Amino acid sequence: MQQRFPQQRQRRMAGLIAERGSLTVAQLARHFDASEPTIRRDLALLEQAGLAARTHGGVVAPRKGEAIEPLFLEKLRVQQGAKKRIGRAAAAHVGKNRSILLDSGTTMLALAQELAGRAISIVALDLKVAEAAAVGATQVHMPAGQVRNGYFSIVGTPAIEAISGFTFDLFFMAADAIDSDGISNSTRDEADVKLAAISRAGQTILLADHTKLGRRALVPVCPLDSISRLITDTGAARAVAPYRNSITDIEIC
Question: What pTM was estimated for this model as a whole?
Answer without folding.
Answer: 0.72
